[in-house]
Design a protein that fits this description.
Number of domains: 1
Distance between the termini: 17 Å
Helix content: 40-55%
Radius of gyration: 18 Å
Largest sheet: 8 strands, mixed
Order of helices and strands: HEHEHHEEHEHEHEHEHHHH
Mean pLDDT: 84
Structural class: alpha/beta
Strand content: 15-25%
CATH class: Alpha Beta
Shape: globular
Length: 302
Amino acid sequence: MNQKVTEKKVINLSKRIGDKEGMSIQKYPKKNKNDTKVIAITSGKGGVGKTSIVANLGFALSKLGKKVLILDADFGLGNLDVLLGLAPKYNLSHVISGERRIQEIILNGPGNIKILPASSGIQELTQLTKQQKIQVFTKLDTLIDSVDILLIDTAAGISTDVLDFNATAHEIIVVVSPDPTSLTDAYALMKVLSLKYSEKHCKLLVNQAANDQEGREIYRQLNLVAERFLDISIEYLGCVMFDEKVKKSVKRQKIVIELYPETKASKCFEMIAKRMSSMQALKLPDGDSNFCWKHLVQDKFA
């Protein structure tokens, strides 16, 4: 099928779903397409604190005056709502099944951030079909016109779902920790994104670093290998220093930047949020969509 014809069908499908869904329930005026910045925050390895980073950065961006929506894209083991002490009645599994509209599952999080919760313990949602992915992205496309930033909290690893969510974003932030296995898995993630999805750029965020010097050294090591063996450039976004207050806040189901705004980890989040707020996306979608639909058009979805 001709690529332009296929692309037109995808865009038309997005419009039809948007009309049916009734567009966004938020009070903000509708913005132009492509004004929303879509940022995927991902990791090769689990346990690096990625979800905590997403929540804290969302809060910090909100404090900067940004309208932020966070998508928990770990459809099988979503836990963003648990981290924030929320108890959603419905989640994305109900949207995919057609039981609820996407606007009906939005939760209000701390600092005026909005949350789209994922399901937990539903194995079928760990491998979405092509049609289900189209459904999710088209409904999201109509929903996020009124926000400034969509943060996608992907699952960890290199599954097709993880890679597809990364590929549709304008920016990819890879989270690593000082654990050597975290670096190895991050490299594997970047390798697949580069070779199979033609991604050329990503940003690196080091979590639980002893100090900025350690964060920059981790970046140097990973960037050295990537420059030598991969066709992908890595930009150092910053580090979040190890802070016992983070563990305390997690136990209380709060985010550290809200509970302990003066602690060192919170200051790191504020600094990184400022950089994110001002950075220009190196990859933007074509046409009227908020997402990079080329992977759908080229039939790269499973």
